[in-house]
Amino acid sequence: MTESELDFAEVRRAFDHAAASYDAHAVLQREVCDRLLERLDFMALQPARVLDVGTGTGYGLAHLRSRYAAAELCALDIAPAMLKAVRARLPQPTWVQRTLQRLTPHASRLTHPVCADMARLPLAASSVNLVWSSLALQWAHDLEAALRGFHRVLAPGGLLMFATFGPDTLKELRAAFGAVDDAPHVNRFIDLHDIGDMLIHAGFANPVMEMDMLTLTYADLKALMRDLKGIGAHNAAAARRRGLLGKSAWARLEQAYESNRHEGRLPATFEVIYGHAWTGDKTQREDGRQVIRLNIGERRRKRGLA
What we know:
Layout: H1 8-18, H2 22-25, H3 27-39, E1 49-53, H4 59-67, E2 72-77, H5 80-89, H6 95-103, E3 111-115, E4 128-134, H7 143-153, E5 154-165, H8 171-177, H9 192-201, E6 205-218, H10 221-230, H11 247-258, E7 266-278, H12 296-302
Parallel strand pairs: 1-2, 1-4, 2-3, 4-5
Antiparallel strand pairs: 5-7, 6-7
Helix pairs in contact: 3-4, 7-9, 8-11
């Protein structure tokens, strides 16, 4: 068991528990989602079907529905309580509205909630045109498998667009916990370059990667920990230490974190990675070999052999 392995059941439990409090604490998540949405302005894409991976309470999904009013949306999350929040934010159209949709080409379509693991998408091959994911990929227990799955479900010419966290995320908290014990307390995040390599291996073409460093500040460590708990982002490492910190360990943690205080506030750094890539014509196999299409039937007809 490595330090980077996640306890998938714990991830699901944490986000189920946090669904009710998520929006009150998700300041950073909304900011990142807004920045990711701005990047869509530069994409010549009018998707018929959109898959939102790790939809959470549906903040990004609502913007996607507004942007692509004629698209059919699929909201995927591992936490049933999150999908319940999506239904409350984006209620399904009535039967009258659905009837009007069939008569009005640009009316908003149905939103389909799907409770599933992002690495095991229950969708048909080449069935969506845009896979969108804002701050969810860091919770994949097998990111490379998830990227291969995204490529499989995307139609030729489809787009993957995502934001995720990089290795310097919560670096202050990770260092402070190092003064307490050797157990993993902060999840490990994958480097930008490694994600780019995974995209190529998954079959994507022309990946573009960017990085931002965002910093939130807090009055004290308890406020930071409340935010992390409120969005369900506490430690889910499979090798994590079970149980709460004792008073002595918490005091050492606070003391270690205090060394970061600047102008009366405690910083929390988040390395945000933005990326997008296209599927191209999907003639590249997952093992990296090129698929050459031989139109033998057409050639035979031209030669009068068929």
